[in-house]
Amino acid sequence: MIRALLLLLCSPAVGAGRPPPPATPRLKLAFPELRARHGLRVYELERSCCYDVLLLDEERGRLFVGAKNHLMSLSLNNISQKDRKIYWPAPVEWREECNWAGKDINTECMNFVKILHSYNRTHLYACGTGAFHPTCAFVEVGQHTEDSVFKLDLRRAEDGKGKSPYDPQHAAASVLVGEELYSGVATDLMGRDFTIFRSLGSRPSIRTEQHDSRWLNEPKFVDVFWVPESENPDDDKIYFFFRETAVERQQGLGKTSFARIGQICRNDVGGQRSLVNKWTTFLKARLVCSVPGTDGADTHFDELRDVFLLQTRDKRNPLVYAIFSTSSSVFQGSAVCVYTMADIRRAFLGPFAHKEGPNYQWVSYQARVPYPRPGMCPSKTFGTFSSTKDFPDEVIQFARHHPLMYNPVLPHGQHPIFLQANTPHTFTRIAVDRVTAADGHYDVLFIGTDVGTVLKVVSVPKESWHNMEELLLEELQIFQDSSPITSLQISSKRQQLYAGSATAVAQLPLHRCGIYGKACAECCLARDPYCAWDGNSCTRYMPNTKRRFRRQDVRNGDPNMLCSEDPQLGSVPQKKLYGVEGSSAFLECVPKSLQARVLWTYQRASSAPKREVQLDERVVRTERGILLRSVQHTDAGLYLCHATEHGFTQPLLQLLLEVIGTQQAPGLAPAGDTEPVGPPGRKVWYRDFLQLVDHPPLGAMDKVCERLWSRRSPPARRRPVLPPPLSAKARPPNWRQGEEPRKARSRRTHEAPRAERGPRNASPW
Ligand SMILES: *[C@@H]1O[C@H](CO)[C@@H](O)[C@H](O)[C@H]1NC(C)=O
Ligand SMILES: *[C@@H]1O[C@H](CO)[C@@H](O)[C@H](O)[C@H]1NC(C)=O
């Protein structure tokens, strides 16, 4: 299986002739840059941690946060402003008890808030681990935006068993529907008795069958959603997403984890004679996310990590986005698969999985299924039953023994929409934003990883809507300490992303259009659905602005069609640099997009033909430009750096190289005894410089090599000793008249400060 995937990832065609998604993001932004220039805001509370629960409240403009011993209310506009806090520790007795039971007093015997829901117009409902003593309480938040009330009502604190986990390491999945809480959680101290549980509200609590591995087998709950099935609320269903040890896997193959989707009816009240206060409508199916291998065996991503329900106009048919990783310790990979409600419902209407006895295989159940078909809700829509208590015994018995469906739910398009393998990270969370662009709607995926980064991905149709292309737009380091992202929320209204980790909460705008560049072509090539060229700059695309001014083409990203007004070669920045004959010269040119390919052309004189720069052992391509070793007189001329991306080539930089001879620098030293035109003392500098070339200071060359050959581009700010960076961002200090010539010692080639300070002899330019 592993070999199959490796083969697959190395072969040029994945699946149906699809190229593997590019591993390189178009842009990579580090924490300091995001913080200094792109509105990244961070919130941390002293003596707390583990910001695992984020609850977005658009109406109140608040972000409610559940953490260790604390609840926070932050401003959605700026999480670093006007925070309100509630201190909610576990009582000392519970902490001592917890400690006696062998748990760590500081990392486990605390109150870790795990559940936070909006309860009614004035209150939230919150649950925490309470030092292995789960507890829930109401939190008063006021009715209006201006209300500054944020108060925990501990007089009405309740037992949190079956709602919050005991162990802070465990996750709980829950959803509040009406006044009832549906949760998937371990209900005991040892974390062995897992259940899908309904509590709160006025109806009796109800749960899954206990100690039956066919129902649940060491599950890890991931998420829960409430989805209406028709206009009739009696058909409403609750869907649970989890992963568990697969019962249907043949014994002897070891434990295998499968991703699952489980369903129950909202109006399930249990059976009358059997399955009393147990679900009678519980069914589960395998959720498949896999890629075909070359040898016919599929590679499965079975470790379900997170699910995001993208609401569409039709409330009954949201899109289910799920992220998975592989369970193999050898092979590291993560994937995103999308499921439709139609496919999910089809699996629950398909054959049941059946096992005749301990020594039998799981097969598709072919005999008669009792009526009403297990899994159907008692309602007027599909039958005549008004309560699950009225279901015939035969139905209840069948349901009890057949919770598993035979057919799995396959992803839309039969394959992942985004896949990364052999990357140093695993996906942990996902949030999706549906964005209106000039040529349609796009779902932009924000994927959190276990190293504190967020990937921004958009899926666009290639030729048709069945053949999609994934664009990895950005890789953003939002947590300085690379801690795993444990929660992710989007505010479409405010165009902000919120993320939680063990160490902090972060807030970042969903887009940074200006960063793509100052030309229409750059904006267009980015293919970011949030961004369009407005005639002057790359800015947020607004669907209601006049068509005449905006340029956007997410689907094709073709600047030839859109950017006719772009400046041509005349306005491409031109720089001059000097190379000393026999030494090396570095022509630096780094495109903004990490996905662009750089192309160099060379022209000896303006009248000479342009030709591509030929690479050999003397002319070497590096990550950041080309290195000319042992510069010769014939190397002088104009070097033009182009970026090629998505079939479009644009000039980035013109570098005019002048070569200075070693014997004598005819162009440098003016004839006669007249005052030199260049900086005074230039001759002295030049002599010093040559010495330096002969005896470079210890370590200087190492640094150059490090910079030239390092696979990861170092930040432009860290300036190496040699050679000077030539990009506009990291320009060496300009020389002024009378400046200490010594300053230039460590430079082998350098930019001319200004044209008139260059050598005096006529250049062909
Ligand atoms: C957010 O609030 C902090 C603290 O008041 C302030 O320093 C920062 O400038 C604010 N940022 C924005 C973008 O408003
Ligand atoms: C919301 O629920 C709380 C807790 O049950 C209750 O005290 C409060 O009155 C309710 N508020 C409204 C507006 O119903």
Name of the CATH first level of the domain at 206-423: Mainly Beta
Bound molecules: 2-acetamido-2-deoxy-beta-D-glucopyranose
What is the CATH topology descriptor of the domain at 206-423?
A: Methylamine Dehydrogenase, Chain H
> Could you state the CATH homologous superfamily of the domain at 206-423?
YVTN repeat-like/Quinoprotein amine dehydrogenase
- Count up the helices: 9
Q: What integer value in Å does the Rg equal?
A: 32 Å
Q: Residue share in helices?
A: 10-25%
Query: Approximately how much beta-strand content do the residues carry?
Result: 25-35%
Strand order of the largest sheet: 1-29-28-27-26
Estimate the global geometry from the Cα principal axes: globular
Biased composition (Basic and acidic residues): 737-759
Keywords: Disulfide bond, Glycoprotein, Membrane, Signal
Family: Belongs to the semaphorin family.
Organism: Apteryx mantelli (North Island brown kiwi)
Describe this entry's structure for a reader.
The protein is mostly beta strands and 765 residues long. The strands form twelve sheets. Strands 1-29-28-27-26 form a five-stranded mixed β-sheet. Strands 35-42-41-37-38 form a five-stranded mixed β-sheet, with no helix packed on it. It has a four-stranded antiparallel β-sheet with strand order 2-32-31-30, with no helix packed on it. The longest helix is centred in the C-terminal third of the chain and has 13 residues, at 682-694. Residues 119-123, 138 line the site of one 2-acetamido-2-deoxy-beta-D-glucopyranose. It comes from Apteryx mantelli. Residues 567-644 form the Ig-like domain.
